[in-house]
DNA sequence: AATCGTTTTGCAACCGGTTGCAAAACCTCC
DNA sequence: GGAGGTTTTGCAACCGGTTGCAAAACGATT
């Protein structure tokens, strides 16, 4: 059925090593030999078994791509770019869906069984614990969109969520809002916590501004809508920093359905700058997260780690910026 | 570094076969032996190498998940469900991004090199040719969201796009529209072609209704918006069947920006019933595609094929239905 | 033609498992 | 305690490759 090295060797009348060598670059083979082998391989339709070779080389070129964000539209772009980028570098993404997992144990075991060369954890909500579990199993790991830290235990590529919280707060202050609110994603997510910390720390410097906060159940449209509907039952703030864009869009829909309107009565600023944020009907003012750069950098880091597994862990933090659209009133 | 069978065997003072058997279910091992081995394995932190074993068993439990739809939000749900479903059955998805590929050659070779047990092609736009290429390489394949056919050459799970086209046409007729339009996705996509065929064939029975058609460049918001803006420059139809929901949403945004309004002046019916279609601010009338069922069925079929590789190809077609929301005017 | 250095080749062991087969161990029954 | 049947175990070969090493082939030089 499937053609093996041995058969090619027999047909070409050479040793198995010779065949192996023609398919390993950097190996010593004469031109004559190479031609003979390639001919036989072509005739038989041979292509080497990557897994068998991984046994001796210790390299599978498989990269575990681990995530639990299968509901946030930005992750489609994330998967698109990761898969493309890995493929371009001759690496294969083994996708792991962690949506329902609460401990890393099983995934670590599974990815070890498949001898992945490395793991990319792509999630802004998973605790650092997950990435660490891979490191402890001696699997090179980079945590994309992970919690930044000045003393990271694993490689982290992402943004400074605390700073983003501050940035949002500064933007609301600058626009002259007097009552502002933080409407976070799920409280357990590290990104929520950090954005919250940043937002509140900046607001602490503005005692004259009344600041409130609450958390939605998830980073989702419905959760954002529900939470905003709840807030609208009493006197809402004049502007909210929402945990992310999809949450913001949910909140906007709630405002649309109410007696209030955006940005006249209530302002919204989101975070991510996902594609939909620029849809004309949404037109969301938001903080841009440089997703493309984060992913490229993650891949580069991964590739580097394959050569130098014990690289000293580093945090690569990319700056964010406010994208002004139509959901905040102009500065006075 | 990584613990092997041999080390466990030595520590337990038994043969390598014994260790292998304790980790293979259905193999003959005494309780005493099993306990001894499991203890040693636990002490050493052993877990078997799935790839090494695949060499002899011929099973990798890897499933190629091939797609080129990394821009349509419904595919996030598709990936979510496929990965979950495969994982639950102890299969591992190897993700392949075909966005920029035009021929199946390279992917087939790659997936063969990794000895995948099967391939799921998840795409409504790839030509049947792609799925066939895998079959010809003797890899079990199911084409999810593929073009249905009464004489399929590979397993296909999806909807009857021709019938969907008819269904949309009937719906517009029923509502009493006198000038209707088909605004398709990219003309090369099989789903576009079939929906077009169905739509036009139904309209052919209604000569009194004026029917026009055009195609957008992609299944995307921007493409839909651009195409609708173009249509609005001359006299638009009273209602359009748009290639899919994301296209519809783009079209809606164009209408919003124009002097017309939806559903008063122009009606829209989409296809897919993606999550956003029910967002309050969108509220799109659309044809529901039973994605969940299609994926579950695809996975079941895949699993069945792993046991019976030469199953006779079948097409599993799921019925669709119109979901009435707010973008078509009521029937007179 | 012999010598020497370099390149190419094949042998054989190995990577981490599985499995058919025969021997060993265990049970049951008389 | 021994015969006969069943279960468990280990041996050794194998899966499809890679690779260190030494022998073979080659090429240049004298």
Would you write up a description of this structure?
The structure is a homodimer of 332-residue chains. In chain A, strand 6 (179-184), helix 9 and strand 7 form a beta-alpha-beta unit. Chain A has twelve helices and twelve strands. Helix content of chain A is 42%, strand content 17%. Chain A has three domains: 5-48, 434 Repressor (Amino-terminal Domain) (Orthogonal Bundle), CATH 1.10.260.40; 62-159 and 290-318, Response regulator (Rossmann fold, 3-Layer(aba) Sandwich); 161-289, Rossmann fold. The first copy, chain A, has a six-stranded parallel beta sheet with strand order 2-1-3-4-5-11, sandwiched between helices. A six-stranded mixed beta sheet of chain A has the order 7-6-8-9-10-12, sandwiched between helices. The model of chain A has no long low-confidence stretch (mean pLDDT 95). The longest helix of chain A has 17 residues, at 291-307. Chain A starts with a helix and ends in a 9-residue tail after the last strand. Chains A and B meet through helix 4, helix 5, strand 2, helix 6 and helix 11 of A and helix 4, helix 5, strand 2, helix 6 and helix 11 of B. Chain A binds a DNA duplex (30 and 30 nucleotides) through residues 4-6, 14-21, 23-24, 27-30, 33, 48-49, 51-58.
Summarize, please.
By secondary structure, the first copy, chain A, is of the alpha/beta class.
Secondary-structure map:
2 copies of one chain form a homodimer.
Chain A: H1 5-12, H2 16-22, H3 31-44, H4 50-57, E1 62-67, H5 74-88, E2 92-97, H6 105-113, E3 118-122, H7 128-136, E4 141-144, E5 155-159, H8 161-174, E6 179-184, H9 190-203, E7 210-215, H10 221-233, E8 239-242, H11 245-257, E9 267-272, E10 286-288, H12 291-307, E11 315-318, E12 321-323
Chain A binds a DNA duplex (30 and 30 nucleotides) through residues 4-6, 14-21, 23-24, 27-30, 33, 48-49, 51-58.
């Amino acid at each position: 059925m499937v053609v093996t090295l041995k058969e090619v060797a027999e047909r070409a009348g050479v040793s198995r090593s010779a065949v192996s060598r023609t398919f390993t670059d950097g190996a010593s083979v004469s031109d004559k030999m190479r031609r003979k082998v390639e001919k036989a391989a072509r005739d038989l339709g041979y292509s080497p078994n990557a897994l068998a070779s991984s046994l001796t080389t210790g390299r599978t070129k498989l990269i575990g791509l681990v995530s639990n964000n299968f509901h946030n539209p930005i992750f489609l772009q994330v998967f698109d770019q990761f898969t493309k980028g890995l493929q371009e570098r001759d690496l294969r993404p083994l996708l792991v869906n962690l949506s329902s997992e609460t401990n890393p144990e099983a995934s670590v075991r599974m990815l070890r069984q498949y001898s992945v060369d490395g793991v990319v954890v792509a999630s802004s909500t998973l605790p650092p614990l997950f990435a660490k579990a891979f490191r402890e199993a001696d699997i090179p790991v980079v945590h994309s969109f992970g919690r930044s830290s000045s003393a990271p235990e694993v490689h982290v590529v992402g943004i400074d969520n605390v700073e983003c919280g501050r940035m949002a707060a500064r933007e609301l202050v600058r626009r002259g809002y007097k009552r502002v609110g933080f409407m976070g994603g799920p409280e357990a997510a590290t990104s929520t916590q950090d954005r919250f910390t940043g937002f509140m720390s900046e607001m602490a410097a503005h005692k004259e501004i009344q600041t409130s906060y609450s958390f939605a159940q998830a980073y989702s449209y419905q959760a954002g809508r529900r939470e905003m509907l709840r807030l609208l039952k009493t006197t809402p703030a004049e502007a909210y920093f929402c945990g992310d864009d999809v949450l913001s869009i949910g909140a906007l829909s709630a405002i649309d359905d109410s007696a209030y309107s955006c940005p006249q009565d209530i302002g919204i600023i989101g975070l991510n700058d996902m594609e939909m944020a620029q849809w004309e009907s949404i037109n969301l003012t938001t903080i841009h997260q440089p997703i493309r750069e984060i992913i490229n950098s993650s891949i580069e880091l991964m590739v580097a780690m394959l050569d130098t597994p014990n690289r000293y862990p580093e945090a690569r933090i990319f700056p964010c910026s406010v994208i002004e659209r139509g959901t905040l009133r102009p500065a006075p």
